[in-house]
Amino acid sequence: MLKRHPLCVTLDLKCKDENVLQLTFYYLLNLNIMTVKAKVTTAVELTTPVSAGDLLSPDSLLSCLYPGDHGKKTPNPANQFQFDKVGIVTLSDYMTELGHPYVWVQKLGGLHFPKEQPQHTVPADNLLSASHMEMTVKLLRARLQSRLALHKQFASLEHGVVPVSSECQHLFPAKIVSRLVKWAAISYEEYAELPYTKDVLEAGLAEDTHLYYMALIERGTAKLQAAVVLNPGYSTLPPIFSLCLNWKGERTGGIDDNIRAMESEVNVSYKELWGPKPGYQLLTNQLQRLCMVLDVYLETEAHDPSVEGPKEFPQEKMCLRLVRGPTRMKPFKFNYPQGFFSHR
User: Fold this and answer.
1) SS (H, E, C) the chain
2) Among 159, 256, 275, 283, which is most buried by a count of CB atoms within 10 Å?
């Protein structure tokens, strides 16, 4: 049932920096579908950070190249009858060996399957293949470059360093005291169990095809946890952060308007953080902005008169107004080149 045609086609996509994405296409004779296997060859040998395990793995590298195309089930409706005959429950059990049957792979091969009526023989169409080739190759190149950029950034993040390029220095004040102390990959299940990620899950912005991470930012006794959803289409689609601050109790966006404002600084105002095109520095700039807004949050807190001694977080940032309105919103917006903070 799963027999492959003896010939396969290998396509090497070379990028300017000498990195190569090698795609091998197979045709499954009985199922009348095509599959692809991916392999990345880098110009220089990469040391793999622990959290970057899934970035270049053949299973997730090409996932959702086009929205919703996760390649986990067969695009040919007729296959289900064939599977039932021989007792195959799902094709995904065999994908490590066979490759993934993404919809774009069928189109490159000139195959188009109608959704409703299963047809056993679908003729290959050269025009269909030609019309999709250019766009798909562009997306494949961009995907490889964005994943390699993330791979490099994760190596820094695991050592507690948030890399900020010279083109993006103006987005942040010269002195930021809060520090990233942990960056690690987590599973979809671990993410879904966190009490402060419910809104993201309910909005349908977190699926099991996405990649998940946990960042921990600290300053003194304050610890800010940030759960991150990375869409496979990064950086066209921005990562989404959910925050939980542990300092004098637990504070999340559901109960503290200022934590929600910090989330919106990275989730809503992300376009300011793209940096030079094509925006591969978005994630690291978002993390640096989180360090910055945590500083503002802590420094603008009123001093508790019942505690003796100096304030734990002396105010070092220049703010026009410390709080605004009945919700006591803090000034999270950094103004360059004057260097002061104001309200959005």
Assistant:
1) CCCECCCCEEEEEECCCCCEEEEEEEEECCCCEEEEEEEEECCCCCCCCHHHCCCCCHHHHCCCCCCCCCCCCCCCCCHHHHHHHHCCCCHHHHHHHHCECCHHHHHHCCCCCCCCCCCCCCCCCHHHHHHHHHHHHHHHHHHHHHHHHHHHHHHHHHCCCCCCCHHHHHHCCCCCCCEEEEEEEECHHHHHHCHHHHHHHHCCCCCCCCEEEEEEEEECCEEEEEEEEECCCCCCCCCEEEEEEECCCEEECCCCHHHHHHHHHHHCCHHHHCCCCCCCCHHHHHHHHHHHHHHHHHHCCCCCCCCCCCCCCCCCCEECCCCECCCCECCCEEECCCCEEECC
2) 283
